[in-house]
Amino acid sequence: MIVARDRYLKKLIAKKHNGKIKIVTGIRRCGKSFLLSTIFTNWLKDNGVDSEHIIHINLEDRRNKELRNPDILLNYIDSKLSDNKMHYVMIDEIQLVPEFEDVLNSYLDMPNVDVYVTGSNARFLSKQVRTEFAGRGEEVKLYPFSFKEFLSTSELDQNSALRDYMIYGGLPQVVLKDTHEEKVELLTALFENTYVNDIVHRYKLRNTEPLNELLDILASSIGGVTNATKLANTFVSVKHENISRNTIVNYLDYICDSFLMEKASRYDIKGKRYIESPYKYYFSDCGLRNVRLNFRQIEYTHLLENIIYNELLIRGFSVDVGVVPKVQRNEEGKISRQYYEVDFVCNQGSKRYYIQAAYRMSDENKIKQEEKSLINIDDSFKKIIILGEYTPVLHNEAGITSISIYDFLLNENSLEL
């Protein structure tokens, strides 16, 4: 089954022939190679490009190990440039090539070569995009299936499909498995043999136990506010281990650089400034989070929040966690400062949305609790509560809109309803 990943295909088409290196990044096994070698390649062929002018190189394939040598790779590509017509060079996992930036830069000024590469390490690749390519490289970030893409593969009703999406996630290979056992087996293998091993080998970690324990702690607390100091204290109190704050900081960076998790910064909405610490961490795929905990903590409230966060990133928003300070006076006349949290502050160009995630608002107290932080924001940007159940779109007197998770996930313009 081929899932049309139109959002990313349109981005590649728009960047075609722009004289820049197109770098497709994202967590391993989210479909980067398939996007280039099948979806984009099929589009090129449908639009008149013949196979001889499409050069695809998978550096993960052991058969291509010698092509990880930059000079051999350069010579191989040169040998495939048969004429002056446009050639499309597609290279998977370019970070496996030392000095790969020199290889790619060699084709920047060639009018008959259009280069596309994939990579799975944010720190390594982003550094090259910013420095070596100096404005001549562009990133296209690919994510696991959105719920809308997931639903296109399923015959389940929306409610059952969302449940499965929350439990097993949206990694293409996992989605296309039929049974619970097959999905769990693949998720387990990917987490242990791909993601963790990649981090261990890339950063030459000798002792893997702290990394694995940190992943367990993060998986248990998605959507919770934390920082390196708090995590180090958790190791002492729960694991009875002394892990330095700097080590925790490094491990958090490694996890995020592998695209396994994303870090959301806290933003003071009234003060219009970022708060350096603490942060929130979300898994790029809920199935990976759940398998890490052996499916013991299927907490739909937290998983709903994680899914909303991922969907906002997929749609190209910059997403922070909002904090609204409010000065209050108690009955004794003493002044105190209360802080209210807004789940997500979403920015895209001139657009901004404040979003609360609520699995259910079953009574008046719960409604007031979810609305409280939004009511205390005194600007005119839209304020939205996304509910984890079916509900019509509602607008209340305080200017707050409530929408269903299904409307949000399946309607690209849902935040404007």
Give a short summary of the structure:
With 417 residues, this protein is α/β, with parallel strands linked by helices. Helices cover 41% and strands 23% of the residues.
Topology, element by element:
Layout: H1 6-15, E1 21-25, H2 32-46, E2 54-58, H3 70-80, E3 87-92, H4 100-105, E4 113-119, H5 122-130, E5 137-141, H6 147-151, H7 158-168, H8 172-175, H9 180-202, H10 209-220, E6 225-226, H11 228-239, H12 245-257, E7 261-268, E8 273-283, H13 286-292, H14 300-314, E9 318-329, E10 335-348, E11 351-358, H15 364-375, E12 382-387, E13 394-395, E14 400-404, H16 405-410
Parallel strand pairs: 1-4, 1-5, 2-3, 3-4, 7-9, 11-12, 12-14
Antiparallel strand pairs: 6-8, 7-8, 9-10, 10-11, 13-14
| Average residue pLDDT | 92
The coarse silhouette is globular
Over the alpha carbons, how many angstroms does the gyration radius reach?
23 Å
Arrangement of strands in the largest sheet: 6-8-7-9-10-11-12-14-13
Largest sheet: 9 strands, mixed
Structure class: alpha/beta
**What level of helicity do the residues show?**
40-55%
> How many H/I helical runs?
16
Provide the succession of SSEs. Answer: HEHEHEHEHEHHHHHEHHEEHHEEEHEEEH
Q: Uncertain segments of ≥5 residues (pLDDT<50)?
A: none
The share of residues in extended strands comes to: 15-25%
* Tally of DSSP β-strands: 14
State the end-to-end CA separation.
33 Å
Walk me through the structure.
By secondary structure, the protein is α/β, with parallel strands linked by helices. The chain is 41% helix and 23% strand. It has 16 helices and 14 strands. The strands form two sheets. It has a nine-stranded mixed beta sheet. It has a five-stranded parallel beta sheet with strand order 2-3-4-1-5, sandwiched between helices. The longest helix is centred in the middle third of the chain and has 23 residues, at 180-202. It is globular, with a radius of gyration of 23 Å. The two termini are 33 Å apart. The mean pLDDT is 92.
